[in-house]
Amino acid sequence: MIRTLAGGAIALALVAAPALAGASPSLADYRYFRALSIDLQGRLPERDEIAAFEQPGFDIDGWIDARLQGPAYAERIRRIYMDRLRLDIGISFEFVPKSSYLRRNTILGPDGQPMNVYFRLMQRRERPETDGDFCLTKAETGLQFPKYNPAVGTPIPVSQEVLDKYTVELKPWWLYRDYRAANPVDRWNPAWAATGAPGFQPVKELLFEADGVTPVTSIRVCREEAQANTVGSIFTTGRKVIKKSEPPPYDRLTYPPVDPPYATEHAGEPIKCESGTAVTMAKDCGCGKGLEWCLPTSGPEFQTFSFHVPWDTPLGPNEPHTVQRYNTASWPRFWWGQEVVEYLEYLAREDRDFREVLTGKYSFVNGPLTQFYRSIAPSTCCGDAVGRDYYSGSTFGYVNPEPLFDPKALPDLLPFQTASWQKVENRGPHAAGILTTAAFLTKNGSRRSRAHAMWNVFFCKDFVAARVKLPPSNEPNLMIRPDCSSCHTDLEPLASYFGRVSESDWTWLPKENFPLENPFCASADPKLAPKHCKTFYDPAFTNASTAMLRSVYGSFENAEKGPEGIAQYFVESPLFPACVAHNVASSFLGRPLVTGDDALKDELTKTFVESGYRLRPLVRALVKADAYKTANNLSSELWRKEGGS
Amino acid sequence: MRRSLVLLAGAVLVATATATACGKGPGVGDSAIPAMPVEAIPGHESLQDNSPKEGPRLLPGEVYLRTINRMLGDVTPLEAEAIMRADEPASLFDRWADYIASLGLPDYQNDVNRAVSTNSLMVATCERLAIAVCIRTAEKELRPGAPPIEKRKVYAFDPTPNPPTDAEFDARFDVLHRTFLGYPAHLAETTDRSLRFRNLYRQAVARGAGETVSRKLTPTEQGWVAVCYGLARHPEFHLY
C-alpha cells in the first residue's frame, strides 16, 4: 500500500524502516549490502533493492549466488586481471604491416577530376615501370609518388584505357556489407550500428569523394591488389641490381625490385598469399574479394585516418564514452584488447577452471579480429628493417610463416561484424590462454617482459636485485653475470619458453627453419655473420662454429616447449592458486594483503583448489568473510573531521 | 604506558648504537652488524603491527559512471552526455572527453594505474557530474509530466505544494539518502544529518525565492537540487 503524506506521495515502502523495529538491518548491514552491490552488480544498489534487503528473511546468500551468475561479476573479475596485465595497446606500438595496408594516391581521372587509387606498397607487378610501386607511371599521370608522401609533379588526366588496363573499380568491404555479392548495394550508413556493426564507422575521407560531399559508391584499386587468390607463385624477373650511382629507370623514384636469393631458387613455386612475403615475391597475390584481407587508409602517408575507434570504454566497447577518428593501426589494436576482455569474462561467467587463463586452447573473435588473425597476423613476419621487410625470413626458407592463431580455425565473419563474437575452440598447437593473444604478445614485446609479466601477475612475485651496485661485465649470460644472476637465474629460463615466438609479434619460429644452434649463422666476428642472421640469432652467442637463437640460452628444453610449456609450469606451481587468491582478495578488500591476512588467504586458496580452481566459490567465500564486511571502515574515529556532514 | 616508555627508550638506544656503528663502518651494506629480523632487535619484539588496516575505499570509476547513467534513465554514456548538455552546451556539462580522464580510471594503453584516492581534479570533476545529474533529473522528475514515482531514479517523490514540514522533508530526504548513500538517513553516524540538510533546503529555497533574475529551476526545485547535490558530493557517495 502507498503511504500518503499531506501534499505529496512517497514511493512504496521506502519509509517503512521504522516499522521493522527488531528486524531492521544495522548500518553495517546496509554498508555490506552496498559493497556487495558495487562488487557483484557493478553499481550502487537501487531503492527497490534496498527495500527488498530490509524485509525480514531476506536471503542474502541467494542474492549473492544469483549475482555470481551475472555479467557484472564477470566484469569484476576481468577488471582484477586487466588492472594487473593492462592489455590494451596504445599509439606507442606502431602497427603498419605493409602487406595489409591499402594506401591511396590521388591522380586526375579521365574527366580531369581528382580520383583516388588504392594500392599496396611493395606490390609486385608485371611492368618494370611499376613493379614494387604504385601501378601508374609519371607518363600516364604526370605525377611521381614518393613513399609516404603526396604525389609530386603536374597532374594530367589519365586515359580511360590506361585506367581500365591497370586498375579495377570495385565495392570494398568497408563500404558495402554485401561486398561478396556480384552487385553489392548495402552501402554503409549509421543504421549499421543497430544491425551487427556497432562502433564501425569509416572516416569521412573514406565515405566521401575529394569534394567532401559526394558519397563514394565505388573505388579504384590497382589491378594486382584486387586479386583474390589464396595461393600465388613466386615471381622472378632476372633483373640485375642497378648501381646507386645511376638514377632509377622509367622515371621511377625507387629502383625496381631484384630477385632475392630465395625467389631465384624457388621461382614458380607456390606461396601463400596471406604471408607478408607474398607481396614482395608474387604478382598474383592481392587483398581478396572486396579487399577483405586488407585495411584501408585515406592517403599515401605513413599513418592516416581510417575508422572511428571507441576510445574511452570503461563500460565496454558498445557503450563508449568517447569515440575518436584515428589512424588505421588503432582499429586492430583496439580489438586485440577486447579479445582478452572476452576471454577473461568468459572464464568468470562460465566459472571455468581458471588455469585456462594460461592453458586454454580456445579464444574469441569477432569480425575485425577474424580479419586480423586470418590475413594480417600471418603477414607480419619476418622483417628486420624498413626496406628489407620479409626478406629475413626467406633467408631461412621461412616464407609461409606459421602464426600462433591458425587461420583455418577461424569462423567466416566479415570484417565489420563488431558485435558477432564467436568462440574458436582450438587456435592451434601452440595456443596458451591469453599468453598467445596479440595483446599480450605486443604489450609485452620482448621474451623477458612476457616472462616478467607472468611472474608478477600469476606468481605475485617481483624481481628485486640483491644488490643495487652492478660491477661492469661483458658476460652475455645474465644467469652468471655478477649480481645480475640474482634475478636472471629465474628470468632467463622463463624467457626461453617464448624463444620460438617472435618478439612484438605472434609468429612461431619452427625448429626446421630455426634450429636452436645454427651453423649457418656462425662467424668468428658476429658482425660478419650472414645477412639477416641477427634478426633471429643472437650476436652475443655467435662464434666460429654456431649461433644461438635469441633468448634460448636460458633453457633449450623450455624453448622447445613453447608458450604451452610455461603455462603448464605456472599452473602446476602451488604459487599459482595462492596468487589467484591474493589477487582476488586484495582487489575485493581494496588493500594489499598483510601477514595478518594469512589465515584468510590460506582458506581462500584451499577453497579455490578444492573447487577445481574455480573463482565463484572463492569469491563466495570471500564476500562472506568478516574481512570483507569490515574492509570498508568508515568509522568516524578514523577519518571524519569534527562536525562533518 | 610506563612499560611502553621503557621499550621505546630501549629501541632508541639500540637505534643510536646501530647508527653509530654504521657511521664508523666501511659503508652502507658493509656494516659489521649482521642482518637480523626486526623482531630479534631488543625492544622491537612487539613494535611491528602486521594486522590488516582497513580504511575508506574509493568507488571504482566504472561503478560511478554506471550509476550516473542509470540515474539519468538507464542510458548509454553518449546519451547521458547529450542529456547533461541538453540545450545549454558547455554551460552545465561539456563532453566526456573533458572529464573522463580525471575520474581515476586506469589507462591500460599508457600503463596508468587505477586511482585509489581522490585528488582535487577528480573531486572537481565529480562535483561537475553531480550538479549535472541533480539538475537534469530534477527537470525530469520534479515537474508536471514526470514519470510515476516508482519509475523515478532520483527524486522518487512529489514536492509538497507548501513548504514542507520537518516530517515531510525528512521523508523525502530519506528517499534521496537511500538513493545516494544506500541506507536510511536515521542511521547516519553524524548527528542531525536530516536537520542540516533541512536547513540547506530551506536556505536554498529562500535564496531562490529572493532572486530577481529568472532561473530555469523554481525555488522548490533549487532546494531539492541543493539537497541532491549535497548527497552526491558527500564523501560516502564516492566510497564503498
The gist of it:
The complex is a heterodimer of chains A (645) and B (240). Chain A is α+β, with helices and mostly antiparallel strands and 645 residues long.
Secondary-structure map:
The complex is a heterodimer of chains A (645) and B (240).
Chain A: E1 4-5, E2 8-9, H1 27-41, H2 47-54, H3 60-67, H4 71-85, E3 101-108, E4 114-119, H5 138-141, E5 143-144, E6 152-153, H6 160-166, E7 167-170, H7 204-207, E8 219-222, E9 231-233, H8 261-265, E10 270-272, H9 276-281, E11 295-296, E12 305-312, E13 322-327, H10 330-349, H11 356-359, E14 363-365, H12 367-376, H13 391-395, E15 402-403, E16 422-424, H14 438-443, H15 447-459, H16 485-496, E17 507-508, H17 533-536, E18 537-542, E19 547-549, H18 556-571, H19 575-589, H20 598-610, H21 615-624, H22 626-629, H23 636-639
Parallel strand pairs in A: 3-11, 4-8
Antiparallel strand pairs in A: 1-2, 3-4, 5-6, 7-8, 9-10, 12-13, 14-16, 15-17, 18-19
Helix pairs in contact in A: 4-10, 15-16, 16-18, 19-20, 19-21, 20-21
Chain B: H1 2-24, H2 61-71, H3 77-85, H4 96-99, H5 120-141, H6 166-181, H7 193-210, H8 219-232
Helix pairs in contact in B: 5-8, 6-7, 6-8, 7-8
Number of strands of chain B: 0
Structural class of chain A: alpha+beta
* Number of β-strand runs of chain A: 19
Termini Cα gap of chain A: 33 Å
Please give the oligomerization state of what you see.
heterodimer
Classify the helix fraction of chain A into a percent range: 25-40%
Main sheet: strand order of chain A: 7-8-4-3-11
Q: How far apart are the termini of chain B?
A: 36 Å
- Unreliable parts of chain A: 1-22, 638-645
Please report the number of helical segments of chain B.
Answer: 8
